[in-house]
Amino acid sequence: MLNVRGVKEVKAVQKTAVEETRLGIPLIIGFDVIHGYKTLSPIPLAEAASWDLEAIKRSAEVATSEAAASGINWTFAPMVDISRDARWGRVMEGGRRRPIFRK
Predict the structure, then answer these.
(1) Residues 6+ apart with CB under 8 A from 6
(2) pTM surpassing 0.70?
């Protein structure tokens, strides 16, 4: 289940899944936690450029604990990607951006 946020909402959908379906299998609750959940950190590209590994680790720990406390048990995190076109709206999530050269 994607984009269900908050303990109350997660509990309600889990109750439905477990108690009102034939197999009663609990749901995996997923949410996009790219650079924080409640507490926002710099985007991953900026964190990587800082080379501050302790700050990056702490940022991930805060995001993890906040998301887990709200019932989220599956998050989407930064990927390694080479973006070749800056028009892509999520270019900041990529690891490196190449400029576009035209002849």
Answers:
(1) 70, 71
(2) no
